[in-house]
Amino acid sequence: MSRISVRGFAVASATAVTTVGAVVGVAAGGQQQGSSDPIEATAADSTLLADIPAGQQAVAQTASLTQQADVQSTAADAEARKSAEEAARKQAAKDAKAKKAAADKAAAEKLAKEREAKEKKKDEVASRSATRDAGDFPQQASYTISEVQSMARQIVPSGQFQCFSNIVDHESTWNYQATNPSSGAYGLVQALPAGKMASAGSDWQTNPATQIKWGVNYMNERYGSPCDAWAFWQANGHY
Fold first, then answer.
1. Does the structure show a pLDDT above 50 at 110?
2. Which of 66, 83, 133, 214 is the most buried (most CB within 10 A)?
3. Bigger pLDDT: 74 vs 57
4. 211: Cα separation from own chain's centroid
5. Which residues fall within 8 angstroms of residue 239, CB to CB, at 6 or more apart?
6. CA separation (Å) from 184 to 145, 170, 190?
7. Lowest-pLDDT range, 8-22, 138-152, 154-168, 215-229?
8. Rounded to an integer, what is the distance from CA 169 to the centroid of its chain?
């Protein structure tokens, strides 16, 4: 039993003991009237045990238990509130960690995509750019088709060579001196007007390497690449 309920019972018990003591005193002293005995006086002024309401002790016990239950309920509410606050704190920390992880992952993916895009762009630029310059080849009085094709393989990026070769096959059949009698188009890639190839070198009329260099640059600037130029040629019959 708790301290509170014991105290409640103590009050009721004290009342009962006082009353019993008074009754016993009266019995011992007889029926004398006007006695000055303190016990008798107390007995005369006290309520007999039989006169104590029958439910008094039950009421005291109920009040004690109610108070105890209130204290326990308050403690339980405080504990529940503390547990809820702790759970909320842990969940907030967990959510913050998950959010940071998601943000870090997104940042890493974005960085990887940017890096991949840069590498891809670099590869595209490299694939469209001539790998060797026309001046890297010694000039000759004349060139065979195989020699011209060998030069083209060294100048045109490997991924674009076949497309470049397809265009040259149709335009000049690899004759660097081929001339269109009606339009005046000239060379491997049939530049029109022919003098445009001078931007790649003054020897454009006699040097296949200069014509190849100009042709690659022209296809890159106008179509994006030799393969894009070949796709246009296939759709239109010219480029």
1. yes
2. 214
3. 74
4. 53
5. 167, 219, 222, 223, 229, 230, 232, 233
6. 22, 16, 9
7. 8-22
8. 53
Q: What is each CA distance from 189 to 146, 214, 231, in whole angstroms?
A: 16, 9, 15
Unique residue bearing structure tokens 């104590």: 52
Give the residue among 149, 162, 166 at the shortest CA–CA distance from 208: 149
Q: Are 193 and 130 in contact (CB under 8 A)?
A: no
Is residue 173 within 8 A of residue 141, CB to CB? The reply is no
Best CA proximity match to 193, nearest among 203, 201, 183 = 183
- Kind plus residue range of the DSSP H or E element containing 62: helix 56-128
Q: 55 near 69, Cβ under 8 Å?
A: no
**20 phi, psi to nearest 5 deg:** -65, -40
Residue 214 pLDDT: 96
Q: Which of 223, 203, 221 is nearest to 211 (CA)?
A: 203
Residue keyed to tokens 């003098």: 195
pTM exceeds 0.70, yes or no: no
% of the chain residues with pLDDT over 90? 41
**pLDDT score for 81:** 86
